[in-house]
């Protein structure tokens, strides 16, 4: 069953530029901690900048990431983030695993995309019982990048619509009902679950901009457009005030890489958090809202990606 929603666009986008004064001192104060090693063979997909590349449940001390086992094989693994190096294999397939997302409130389920042949579907596993694949979402078009809604057993995900445009949909794990919403990708919810942010190409600038949608009122507004470059992988803080996201570096010496930025929704300001010449991607908040987890190829001679933790403030 499909339900269609349309949002009313308020068109109050704000063009924001980042501040990057004293960036060396600023990055030094963030206390970067590497949670994985090169030997973990953390896998990413740079062509999927609007999808999760890993996920964290720091209340349970769990880190879920994609690991490259061969050139064609990529599976999900669980690693404890307390430095104990305890690993658990979650999936065991030849290829096609991506976009992991762990459910809130105890991390009972792990959802992910699984491309088998030409068809991409969304599956889940029950982390508290067994790791048997549970088929969740299957459509004639690809289904990818699942994200759990707060305080519920619902999943928001992306599929492909007319003109190859990404569409946001939601799925109720209890009723198996699918609701199709509107064009967009990379959803991230505010704590109460009433609003969420997402990215979509702005018609005027042609850049990927940040939008917010209110589920209760069905109102949509364009929240942020970067001065130069696209916005990727937004992540709302646990208190709902801040939004971390990825954009092209504004440092003169590192203009070809991606960095992490922080947007303050109360003051309508943004600032650059990372300045390393490597790529810093996919920021995700700790439960206390004081730290950000992210994936990066910094401090690796072979440009191998690892998962890191840093202070957000």
Features:
single chain; 313 residues; mainly beta; Neuraminidase; six-stranded mixed beta sheet; five-stranded mixed beta sheet; 2 helices; 27 strands; globular; disordered N terminus
Describe this structure in words.
By secondary structure, the chain is mainly beta. It has one domain: TolB, C-terminal domain (Neuraminidase, 6 Propeller). Helix content is 3%, strand content 48%. The protein is built from two helices and 27 strands. The strands form six sheets. Strands 2, 3, 17, 18, 19 and 20 form a six-stranded mixed beta sheet that branches. Strands 1-16-15-14-13 form a five-stranded mixed beta sheet, with no helix packed on it. A four-stranded antiparallel beta sheet has the order 4-27-26-25, with no helix packed on it. The longest helix is centred in the N-terminal third of the chain and has 6 residues, at 23-28. The chain starts with a strand and ends with a strand.
Structural class: mainly beta
Report the average pLDDT across residues: 87
Element order, helices and strands?
Answer: EEEHEEEEEEHEEEEEEEEEEEEEEEEEE
Q: Tally the beta strands.
A: 27
Describe this structure in a few short sentences:
This protein has 313 residues and is mainly beta. The radius of gyration is 19 Å and the shape is globular.
What is the topology?
Blueprint: E1 2-4, E2 8-9, E3 15-16, H1 23-28, E4 33-34, E5 54-57, E6 62-68, E7 74-80, E8 87-89, E9 97-102, H2 104-107, E10 109-116, E11 119-126, E12 134-137, E13 143-148, E14 154-160, E15 166-172, E16 178-183, E17 185-189, E18 195-201, E19 208-214, E20 219-226, E21 232-236, E22 242-248, E23 258-264, E24 269-272, E25 280-285, E26 291-296, E27 306-311
